[in-house]
Amino acid sequence: IPEGASKGANGVGVELFLEKLFSDCYTIEDQNKLKAAIKTLMLHADLNHHLTFGACSAAQREALLLDLEHSAEHLWAYTTLRTETIRGYTTSEYVLTEHYHYVMAPGFYHGCVNV
User: Fold this and answer.
1) Which pTM value belongs to this model?
2) What is the phi/psi pair of residue 114, to 5°?
3) What is d(CA 102, CA 17) in angstroms, rounded to the nearest whole number?
4) What band does 10 get if pLDDT is binned at 50, 70 and 90?
5) How would DSSP label each residue in 16-28?
6) CA distances from 80 to 5, 18, 30, 72, 96 (A)
7) Across 12-34, average pLDDT
8) 54: pLDDT confidence band, cut at 50, 70 and 90?
9) 77 neighbors 68 (Cβ within 8 angstroms)
10) DSSP of 57-111, one letter per residue?
11) 74 touches 68 (CB < 8 A)
């Protein structure tokens, strides 16, 4: 999720959420599937653009991710990464407070009010 008028996924720390989520909540087999898909992304970025994935332009990164989506071998990893990234972003403190106006403990106590 790119930066724009609001913070993007990197700005709210989604990568930290994903790292903790995958290491604590996913099996070793699933972690290996994710690692293989990420390795494929890095390899294709190097072969197609002679750059690291992070150094590619937004259009190049999008094309590489769409290639991953169309790969039968890595479809599960693509879908999981996409879903968990969106979940990490939409449940971040920044998005909840700035966009959804979430209040942690709604309802206020006013003890000195005339009845």
Assistant:
1) 0.83
2) -70, 135
3) 20
4) very high
5) HHHHHHHHHHS-H
6) 27, 10, 10, 14, 22
7) 96
8) confident
9) yes
10) -HHHHHHHHHHHHT-TTTHHHHHHHHHHHHHHHHTSHHHHHHTS---SS-S---S
11) yes
